[in-house]
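Input.
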Amino acid sequence: MTDTIQSAIDYMQETRDRMMEDYKALLRFPSISADPAYADDVCACADWIVSQLAAMGFENCEAIATEGLPVVYGEWLKAGADKPTILVYAHYDVQPVDPLPLWNSEPFEAVIRDGKIFARGASDNKAGVWGNLKTFEALLRANGTLPVNIKIMFEGEEESGSPSIEAFVEANKERLRADVLLNCDGDFAPADPKLYYGGRGMVTAQVRVSGPAADIHSGLYGGLVQNPLHVAGAIIGSFHDAAGRIQLPGYYDDVMEAAPAEKDRIEAGFQADSLLEGAGVDCFWGESIAPASERATVYPTLDIVGMWGGYQGPGIKTIIPAEAGFKITMRLAPDQDPRAISRTLKDYVESFATDTVQVECKIGENAWYFQLETEGPWLEAVQSAIEETVGLRAQLVRTGGSIPILGVFNRLIGLPITAFAFGHGEGIHSPNEYLEIDTFFTSLEAAARLYHNLGEVAG
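Output.
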């Protein structure tokens, strides 16, 4: 086994420059799933990945249509019935690039400087797509075979909440049948490796407050016509009390306290200093609710992530706006049902309507929490590969973020899930996103070992 792994690693290093040049081609697709204007670019990106899989010898490769954007699928099932089948997940869609003026280079130009490649998606999560493709290419070119059976599932809607993914999984259960799901959406830091084993659910919503038929003069109508901005502000201001507790009726009813062992694991993986530094603040909010480590990982949240209304240009325009609105994201505790929370949120927000303003709350995403393996042979295959490559085992960490597809697999298929990430970067969801090239190739070496380790697990 050592010779076959080393042959693959040698191939990766020999083709390093070409590999990064080809990666630029993937990064140049502006595959922004949240903006319908980029739908054709997302589809073109999916087709390009399909062509890469087919060129490597994968079979049944296609960009499978969904109610929204396509899922890339392909399979290599020649390892034999005695070898496990790994369903490999990553996503090829990316976040919007705003604010564009803060980028030091064009977001989809894919520029290499100082040992890093800068582009939207370079780290999150086209590295997971490209890392897997290049690992499989290296294993196939060096050894003529793969040590496991592989099914590829690369999603095109993760950054917009995976609205079509539950229906897709429900309709394709047989096609997606496997022994384990390998989630490749994450970060690989050789000096401090971490594996995210669980995350929160999520609800998103957009609220629109409508008043007069058009913007009207504040001198003529101020005090006579209710201002939609005032109503929007009242709704936002009502969401939390002074201590930070969310005021939606019954919001905490299903929130269960974490078990002592889970509390210890959460606390061990929580890095308060780095989070404070990253946020640029001196202290956290809501200290009376629960310890910061739990508020960041297993307690629910409600945040306003955008708001609008009225005149936004320089100076003052004396009007009462016809409309105002805001956007909400909620991270949910493991025991909360996102569908029930959505109904509660909608009923609460729309109760602010009056005879003079209309309030509409449009629910977007409903995503369940997810849970990965915290022990057993699948996790050990990952840990051993990381340890053999960088000399350290990964710390198990619970994230406060959400990965909708993993919650879908937990509920609909019950497939065991473990994780492996490709490369380390910064600026995820922000300007000047980058991937460290050396770290990326270190993760490729670990991936070659990982797939061999997975092949040793009984199917």
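Residues 64 and 70 are 5 Å apart (CA to CA).
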